[in-house]
Design brief:
By secondary structure, the protein is mostly helical. The protein has a single domain, classed as Fumarase/aspartase (N-terminal domain) (Fumarase C, Chain B, domain 1, Orthogonal Bundle). The strands form 3 sheets. It has a two-stranded parallel ribbon. α4 packs across α7 (156-166). Helix content is 47%, strand content 11%. It has helices spanning 3-8, 22-31, 39-57, 79-93, 103-117, 126-137, 156-166, 191-195; strands spanning 12-15, 34-37, 97-100, 140-142, 145-147, 172-174.
């Protein structure tokens, strides 16, 4: 069955951060099923974000948010510096080479990342997570290259390439005419780091 034909019969997968199955990943990545957050996941993500903002306002040290990263982790930074750091984290990690990953592989990665973020542990802004989901639902597929990573996790570079499109930058394949992405602000405290 062609992707376009499958899309007409699509269902909606509800992400809660806990119960995503391989069958659901296949349905979204290959068949075009839609994606939505459960209300509980929305509450968890919002509460996590509120905690980050409260800690920033209280002057707490938060790695990569109110401090530098790597060797600069012990250096406190101003809110303005922290806001700029969020965008620069994404830019510095979005470096890869090789062949472009197939759209279904990228869609699967996006879904898995959205599901992880739905747990409510990252401090991401709900609007940014909604953009990931909207990108899936509108067939906005970021260009992600097969080789290249930063650090030991192996996923920072591909996640940064996804995040670039969330910001309204980077490159993406658009399969539908209404697939535009206006992007979201990553300069808020912790926004860029949460996307990776």
């Amino acid at each position: 069955m062609l992707y376009q034909e499958a899309k007409e019969h699509a269902m909606t997968i509800h992400l809660d951060g806990q119960s995503l199955t391989m069958e659901q990943v296949h349905a979204v990545a290959c068949l075009g099923d839609g994606v939505a957050l459960t209300e509980e996941a929305r509450r968890k993500v919002q509460r996590s974000r509120e905690l980050v903002e409260q800690m920033v306002e209280a002057g707490k040290a938060i790695y990569g948010v109110t401090t530098g990263i790597g060797e600069l982790a012990r250096i406190r930074i101003t809110q303005e510096q922290g806001e700029e750091l969020q965008r620069r984290i994404i830019y510095s990690h979005a470096a890869s080479t090789g062949d472009i990953q197939p759209p279904h592989v990228v869609r699967a990665a996006m879904l898995c990342r959205a599901n992880t973020l739905a747990k409510g542990f990252s401090g991401i802004r709900l609007e940014s997570l909604d953009t990931y989901i909207e990108m899936l639902n509108r067939d906005v597929v970021p260009v992600v290259y097969e080789k290249g990573s930063v650090g030991t996790s192996g996923d920072l570079s591909p996640l940064a390439q996804l995040a670039m499109v969330v910001l309204g930058e980077g490159e993406a394949f658009l399969r539908r005419a209404d697939a535009g992405s206006e992007g979201h602000e990553a300069r808020r405290p912790g926004a860029g780091k949460a996307l990776l």
